[in-house]
Amino acid sequence: MAEIEIPEFTILEAVTLESSPGRANEDCYGSNEACIFVIDGASGLGDDQYMSGFGSDAAWFAQFACDYFSKNHTGDIALAKVVRELSLEARREFFAGSGAENSPFYAWPSASFAMVELSLGELVFSGLGDCTLYLQCDHGVVKEYSAMQGFHHFEQQRAAKHIARFGGLDVLPSYKSDAQTLADLRKIRSLQNTEESGVWTLGLVPQAADHLVRKTIPFGNSARGLLCSDGFADLVNLFNVYAADSLLAEAANHGLEPLLQQLRHLENEIDPRGLKFPRFKRSDDATALLFEVSLDG
After folding, report:
1. CA-CA 20 to 30 A from 257: which of 146, 207, 232, 268?
2. What is the domain count for the chain?
3. DSSP string across 224-261
4. What CA–CA distance (Å, rounded) separates 93 from 96?
5. pLDDT of residue 119
6. Number of H helices, E strands in the chain
7. What is the pLDDT confidence band of residue 7, given thresholds at 50, 70 and 90?
8. Does residue 136 contact residue 245 with C-beta atoms inside 8 Å?
9. In CATH, what number is assigned to the domain containing residue 254?
């Protein structure tokens, strides 16, 4: 009987960076023998913070989800079941003793996530929200995978309207300082994880597990990938300094730290007011995992 070759992950580099010094990093990443993943907590829109010790409710939830995936998604239970149980457990913890039980829906913490799992002869991409995987199999064409493909265009259009009313990101201390923008964002957030919107994210709503996006990807003998939050993917989707293939090549050849520095330079030096590249905040949390997969032996 022929020996079965088992694919293995190798994480080449991992980076995560808060949007600006002193602010909570609402991104995180993790891995175990079965999977690697990134999580991007959605910035809170409520008036109050309910979970202490993390800097924000979004940072709490991102870390909760990271720990839960690392411990509980070991490959022997379907990911949809893990996501459902994660949501139920997070919901119980968020409401237990925090005073959040009567909080509005837009104040509930949520996150995007993207995950890559290993199977015999194939990879499986899974996700909810707008995190991204750039993947090259057997030195072929680099392909992009996201559970919310193209969402960044919608986000930029809304940000452009916000900026147009004030003339730049420097006019207000935060997008939350503008009542109209905050009301619009709260309305959209309140529709997430509902059948009405069809937009599903990781959070306190267990039904989101029924809408998990999954894609099976045959990879042959080897693959190289970049798994990242939308803040890191802005190098492609917002600032347009890379395409999918050139970003992956740059990461593989020169590492992730120079790309983080380039991202912050674009945000803080090239377009600090958001006039050329519309966005709701000058800088975003950014996280990326560079990895390879090869057959053992």
Report:
1. 146
2. 1
3. EEEEE-HHHHHHHHTS-S--HHHHHHHHHHH-SHHHHH
4. 5
5. 79
6. 7, 10
7. low
8. yes
9. 3.60.40.10
